[in-house]
Design brief:
Helix content: under 10%
Structural class: mainly beta
Shape: globular
Strand content: over 45%
Distance between the termini: 40 Å
Largest sheet: 7 strands, mixed
Order of helices and strands: EEEEEEEEEEE
Length: 112
Amino acid sequence: QVQLVESGGGLVQPGGSLRLSCAASGFTFSRYSMNWYRQAPGKERELVAAIASAAGITNYADSVKGRFTISRDNVKNMVYLQMNSLKPEDTAVYYCQAYRWWGQGTQVTVSS
């Protein structure tokens, strides 16, 4: 059974940082590209960051380039999203995703 379990969300002030984690199980993790999506209230879900299976290639939404970093550990079956210089517009539920599988999401709120 495939599971993607996110953690690390919370409330942070503008300019702060958070690190999201996603624990994957039930599939051969190292063979799949991994993605982080987010969905803000009233908005469509958007791709935030992606990392290829070999961990060499990453892609980011323009809105987070230079502030967010995606990484993975193919031994621990984990994917991470380091988020720095957070802005109120980063507030959303963040989802870990691979192939057709989705995690349950973790809430990130950026507010003073």
